[in-house]
Amino acid sequence: MSDTLTKRSLRIAVAGATGQIGSALLSKLVKEDVEIVALSRDPSTDRLPHGIAPMVVDFEKPSTLSTAVEGADQLFVAHGTSARQVENEIAVIDAAVAAGVAHIVKVSVMGPPVRLHPFDWHAKIEAHLATRDVGYTLLRPSTFVDILKRRAAFVAQGTWGGAAGEGRVNLIDTRDVADVALAVLLNQENLQAQRAYHLTGPASVSMPEVAAELSRLLGAQISYDHRTPEEHRKVLLEAGLSEMIADLQLGLDRLFKLSVQAETTSTVFELTGQPPRSAFAWLKENLAAFQPVK
Question: What is the pTM of this model?
């Protein structure tokens, strides 16, 4: 594929089009002179920008993947966390390579090789992608700030806590990941390059600091209850979470406690020209979800 492709001739396939990053990316791509193919397992258009119809894919039918990526110049991949993530992402990557896609942009995760899901899943997908004869960009964000919304009900009920201790994590806004993806997809230089970008927010926070900021914003005392992993798992299961989701959250708490994702990078600013959004700014935008139950 020539490096002289113009934006007008670009055909970009987006796998995970209805996810948080995918939908944010699509809302920006529709303003560009590109042709968009939105891959989705859901035929509904409710979560897609106006005028974009999904290209429905079925991972049990590989031919649907091949049809969806046919003629695409680039592929963006952001599969939701699930037990099928490795198989599904590898399937769409292989379909894209077979179709002659020049460059693949995959959302991965920032962190060391560990056996925790989904970190180990992303490592397997990255290792597979490295064996393919294709240019690619790995976007390795730290943990998404949106995970705090999953804690909102606990905050509202006064039962928020976990096993993260005083550890720190540099949470990133999914919109910043979408902004970086847009910049990478529209950059037509060095399409055969194989690279990775580590993406973070502007500063790390601890869960007790998040509780303190929520207290300030809400004008009410919000506490973070320190628990052992065993105690927290019991709370999560009793709240109705599945064992897989409970274990995923416990795995994140373990990494938070060890401050594994506490570093700060300047990559978002360097690639987009805009500073990343802060975790506290996100809290202010989503404050209604955390209002205490009266």
Answer: 0.93
Q: Which domains does the chain have, with CATH numbers?
A: 7-142+173-199 (3.40.50.720)
pLDDT tens track for 79-128: 888 889 999 999 999 999 999 999 999 999 999 888 888 999 999 999 99
Neighbouring C-beta atoms of residue 67, cutoff 10 Å: 16
Could you write out the DSSP letters of every residue in 174-203?
A: HHHHHHHHHHHHH--S-TT-EEEEEE--SS
Q: Return the closest-CA partner of residue 111 out of 265, 283, 268.
A: 265
Residue 110 has a CB neighbour count (10 Å cut-off) of 23
Task: List beta partners, residue 139.
Answer: 107, 197
Six-digit token pair at 252? Answer: 């994140």
| Residue 15 and residue 168 in contact, taking contact as beta carbons nearer than 8 Å | no
Alpha-carbon 58 to chain mean position: 22
pLDDT digits (tens, 9 = 90+) for 165-198: 999 999 999 999 999 999 999 999 999 999 999 9
- Amino acid identity, position 116: L
Residue tagged 């065993």 (tokens): 230
3-19: per-residue pLDDT in tens?
444 444 799 999 999 88
**Residue 229, helix vs strand vs coil:** helix
**Whether the Cβ atoms of residue 107 and residue 77 lie closer than 8 Å to each other:** yes
- Which stretches within 58-116 are classed as H helix? 62-69, 85-98
How many CB atoms lie under 10 A from the CB of residue 150? 12
What local confidence, expressed as pLDDT, does residue 53 receive? 84
Phi, psi of 195 (to 5 degrees): -145, 170
pLDDT for residue 7: 41
How far, in Å, CA of 261 to CA of 270, rounded? 20
